[in-house]
Amino acid sequence: MRKKKMAHVQLDSTATKCIYLSQLTHSELCDKICKVLDRSTLEMMAKMQFLMQIIGTDRAKLIETDEDVIQTFKTSKQPLFQLSWKYSLSANLNTTIRVVRNALVAMIGISEYDDNKKWANLPNIKEDDTVNFKDLFEKELNYDFVHNQEARMTKEGVKDFFSNLMLSRELHKNSMNYDALIVILCANGDEGDVLTSSDGKGVSIDEIRHSFDCDNLEAFKNCPKIFIVDIGRGDSIPKAYKMVMRGREQPLRYGHNDDGFFTIWSTTKGHKVADFSHLSTGIKDVFSRFKDNCSLHQMIHQVRNNIRKKNNGEWYCVEVQDTTLYDIILAPKKRHWIQR
């Protein structure tokens, strides 16, 4: 009887499991790996149409054939296999893909307010949301990340932030060759889609968005503009109930000055949202895991599903507004090392 060979499979950054192979074939390896994946991962692969890729011990070669498996065991007695997830386009072969590698990320997080009888302080914005988004976009994806340093920000301060951003980064010329803009807004909010500043004044989200549209920022007319907006949008308190999720396609418009926007809202119009940081945590967890291997649409779908399963997840109803003509993939920016 042939002795079984042991190998290790790294499921994520912390979890590793052992598997045993007797035939050393690619099909057996895939079968053994699938048996150690948890149910949620398998469901995610099916819903999001991911293809599993197996990476060898040297972290450079994909394991795709029986010979690859045999050679890996010749190199190491107990090899470590890693997994990556590839976005399958087989369901929509006509989809255009836009890969982002050099985005500018601008975040406003307002966590302290002058009148706490009307507007509560939001400590999780400073303690969790800013940290989550900075870890993801600056440390993992290596994008330029700019955010306000103070917990308080007046309405004029918000306007000054974006004016200074335009000047300091020369956005009207796009001299830094950014291929996308990502704007993150975390604060109290109110009906009419307005961000509430520390002095209790409203800043229109539409006006902020308008400053980045094709008419006002022509240098970015062919670049995706991604907005992540985590604010309250009214006074209605959501109630939890079981529901069947159903997909809905967004209409696409051609030649409009609002083309190219992909906006993610933490909740729908008219509803409050609680200070639990579920949106930033969900985005960080999902994006970190799947980054350059799946589309933004797919990742947000998974973020929405994950939030639904959390305690207090009923406070969130993640909504997407999309006027892009392509699927967006966020890939890490390559680091350039300078020899001294």
From TrEMBL:
Residues 172-236 form the Caspase family p20 domain. PROSITE patterns: CASPASE_P20 (PS50208). GO terms for biological process: proteolysis. InterPro entries: Caspase-like_dom_sf, Pept_C14_p20. It comes from the Eukaryota. SUPFAM superfamilies: Caspase-like (SSF52129). GO terms for molecular function: cysteine-type endopeptidase activity. This is Caspase family p20 domain-containing protein.
